[in-house]
Amino acid sequence: GESVGLHLPTLSVQEGDNSIINCAYSNSASDYFIWYKQESGKGPQFIIDIRSNMDKRQGQRVTVLLNKTVKHLSLQIAATQPGDSAVYFCAEMGMDSSYKLIFGSGTRLLVRP
Amino acid sequence: KAGVTQTPRYLIKTRGQQVTLSCSPISGHRSVSWYQQTPGQGLQFLFEYFSETQRNKGNFPGRFSGRQFSNSRSEMNVSTLELGDSALYLCASSWTKANEKLFFGSGTQLSVL
After folding, report:
1. What per-residue confidence (pLDDT) applies to A7?
2. Which of A18, A36, B15, B62 pairs as cysteine with A44 (C-beta 3.0–4.6 A)?
3. pLDDT tens-place string over residues B8-67
4. Pick from A5-9, A102-106, B78-82: least confident
5. How far apart are CA A102 and CA A1, in angstroms?
6. What secondary structure, in 3-state letters, does chain A show?
């Protein structure tokens, strides 16, 4: 399959701290990137997206950073809350009319009270 | 506004049977995508439809098929089920023709015994 395999790293943070979740994407031709949050028993929930002509985009308590030179994407969550505990996926899409997202393997975020 | 609705939520089948899963996209969305999620392979692209046309298909055997209706609702079918088809099947819809900001449903959990 095209998705990265089983390895699921875990990030444990203290409530109120900032979280940084990293993702290495695979295709240098990808020009659209998106972060999803998935809670147990639910489908992925859209968090934030960014196009390749930007290197930073901010949302409510979240910031996405894109470094095309090293094909790296990160999601920063400010003042992490217990409700942020979930698995986070990055995904990439090429504007080559493939219309499909290629997902990373995900990172589990655990927020300690 | 209702989100992406998938039915049924859970399904148990035996090997050799076939199954049909249903997806109703967000009102006004004309693009529908299907993904398979398993612990071993993560999220993998199955196929994508826009205005009743399949624009792309992932690397899955011909036992996996789908279609989209004129009201944008979509179905996917898996014939001759195998144990390895056990997975969470996710449907997603997008407002844009380029499939940006895909919104996912909660999925259909298929178990093949």
Report:
1. 62
2. A36
3. 999 999 999 999 999 999 999 999 999 999 988 899 999 999 999 999 999 999 999 999
4. A5-9
5. 10
6. CCCCCCCCCEEEEECCCCEEEEEECCCCCEEEEEEEEECCCCCCEEEEEEECCCCEEECCCEEEEEECCCCEEEEEECCCCHHHCEEEEEEEEECCCCCCCEECCCEEEEEEC
**Across the interface, do B100 and A32 touch by the CB < 8 Å criterion?**
yes
Distance, CA of A45 to CA of A90 (rounded, Å): 11
Q: Is the pLDDT at A5 greater than 90, yes or no?
A: no
Q: List chain B residues with CB under 8 Å of A43.
A: 4, 90, 92, 104-107
Nearest C-alpha of chain A: how many angstroms from B16?
23
Is there a contact between B59 and A95 if contact means CB atoms under 8 Å apart?
A: no
Question: If you search the block for the tokens 């859209």, which residue do you land on?
Answer: A46
What's the mean pLDDT in B73-85?
A: 97
- Report which of B36, B90, B39 is spatially closest to residue A8, judged by C-alpha positions: B39
**CB contact B66 to A (< 8 Å):** no
The C-alpha atoms of residue A27 and residue A25 are separated, in whole angstroms, by 6
